[in-house]
Design goal:
Layout (H helix, E strand, L loop, with lengths): L1 H16 L19 E5 L2 E5 L20 E3 L7 E2 L9 E3 L7 E2 L12 E3 L21 E3 L7 E2 L12 E3 L7 E2 L12 E3 L20 E3 L21 E3 L21 E3 L22 E3 L20 E3 L17 H5 L13
Parallel strand pairs: 2-3, 3-5, 4-6, 5-7, 7-8, 8-10, 9-11, 10-12, 12-13, 13-14, 14-15, 15-16, 16-17
Antiparallel strand pairs: 1-2
The chain binds 2-acetamido-2-deoxy-beta-D-glucopyranose (6 copies).
């Protein structure tokens, strides 16, 4: 606790004492890199320094107005060091060969709302990496090399709404990695190496959308999403899930879209869809190993989309009803496709 206090104090001091390099060219030296352009985009003063083979974030920028948007894409910046442009609201450092971010690099950027670090080679995220970003709403870390999310990884981002860490190499997520993300609504962990569903029971997450697709999940634990009461969209597709416990979706009273396609599911528990029963609109079950489904296992009349093709349907007394499935639900205008092969 004491250490935490000291760190916060150091960050605050940095914020208070360092007002040089404020982002205009009035006396700022060295001169801004030639090729960096100042212009107004979406009514915001913007500086763009794309594809200039820059080795570092420039210490001076062109333009007489302090920029609110800075785009530095396609350069060769192996390390992100402290960024002093405290007027920034949008910052894009994409495809820049970034390997690491020094701690407190964003400590001055308390007005930043969008930070994109897509398409780099960042391996490490620490609790203090994002310290100071008190107004950040969207963080994009898509397509990096992050292997693990430590305890309190996003602790200092109290306003974050969208967190995209898809296309990384995340194999483990510490308990408490998502602590303090109380307003997060979209969490994208797609295309990683997760073998277990992260624990959400000790967080105050209130997600709308959770994407765990394209990972290495084989098992789903007992009531794993119970605390995500208002979840509307859940992606579990493209994993290696063999079985779902009957409690897999317990607590998900508001779930609308459920993606379970491209797994190895065989048995579907009788009451599996009971909790999201009232709210479900789309259920994707194609390309699994399902042999049987009972006619009262899904709320057919209200569903807009059900995909059942590419399974191993058995032709038994229990499944004979499925032959007439098309007739039962086809008249509903919004059905996208239902293909059942016998
Ligand atoms: C990027 O920088 C590294 C050294 O940091 C260098 O080895 C590499 O050649 C540079 N790449 C380009 C395209 O300039
Ligand atoms: C941050 O935003 C607030 C509210 O829009 C504004 O008053 C303040 O001047 C901004 N800070 C900087 C350093 O631009
Ligand atoms: C991911 O980032 C690397 C490095 O910038 C890039 O070469 C690659 O094309 C990106 N992949 C995608 C799918 O964008
Ligand atoms: C994080 O949450 C804890 C309580 O869980 C709170 O004490 C702390 O002030 C929060 N920190 C930030 C930076 O919001
Ligand atoms: C969260 O769930 C795990 C099992 O999935 C359990 O071991 C742990 O005690 C639970 N924590 C809380 C705070 O409920
Ligand atoms: C579908 O529509 C056709 C013609 O409009 C009607 O004859 C048939 O009974 C309807 N089927 C169902 C299941 O409502």
């Amino acid at each position: 606790m004491v250490l935490k206090g000291i760190l916060v104090t150091i960050a605050t001091l940095l914020l208070l004492t360092d007002s040089s390099q404020s982002g205009n060219d009035d006396g700022c030296k060295p001169a801004p890199p030639s090729g960096c352009v100042y212009k107004v985009t979406d009514n915001l003063p913007t500086v763009i320094c794309n594809n200039l083979n820059l080795k570092a974030i420039p210490t001076c920028l062109p333009g007489k107005t302090h920029p609110k948007k800075l785009i530095i894409n396609g350069n060769n910046i192996s390390q992100i060091t402290s960024i002093r442009y405290d007027t920034l609201e949008y910052l894009y450092i994409e495809s820049d060969n970034v390997l690491n971010i020094v701690l407190y690099a964003f400590g001055h950027l308390s007005n930043l709302t969008v930070l994109s670090l897509r398409n780099n080679f960042i391996t490490d995220i620490q609790r203090d990496t994002f310290i100071g970003l008190t107004h950040l709403k969207e963080l994009y870390l898509t397509n990096n090399s992050i292997k693990t999310l430590p305890h309190h990884a996003f602790f200092y981002l109290p306003q974050l709404k969208i967190l995209e860490i898809n296309k990384n190499s995340i194999a483990s997520i510490s308990d408490g990695a998502f602590a303090n993300l109380t307003v997060l609504s979209e969490l994208n962990l797609r295309d990683n190496k997760l073998i277990a569903v992260p624990k959400f029971n000790n967080t105050r997450l209130d997600l709308d959308i959770l994407n765990l697709g394209q990972n290495k999940l084989t098992e789903i634990p007992h009531e794993p999403f119970k605390t995500l009461k208002y979840l509307k969209t859940l992606y579990l597709d493209d994993n290696e899930i063999i079985t779902l416990p009957h409690s897999a979706f317990w607590g998900l009273d508001h779930l609308k879209l459920l993606h379970l396609e491209n797994n190895q599911l065989s048995h579907i528990w009788y009451h599996l869809f009971l909790d999201p029963w009232e709210s479900l609109l789309e259920v994707y079950l194609h390309n699994n190993n399902i042999a049987e489904l009972n006619p009262i296992q899904l709320p057919w009349k209200q569903l807009h989309v059900v995909t059942l093709d590419d399974n191993h349907w058995l032709c038994t007394c229990k499944t004979v009803w499925m032959k007439s499935l098309r007739a039962v639900i086809d008249n509903s205008t919004s059905i996208m496709y239902v293909k059942v092969f016998f």
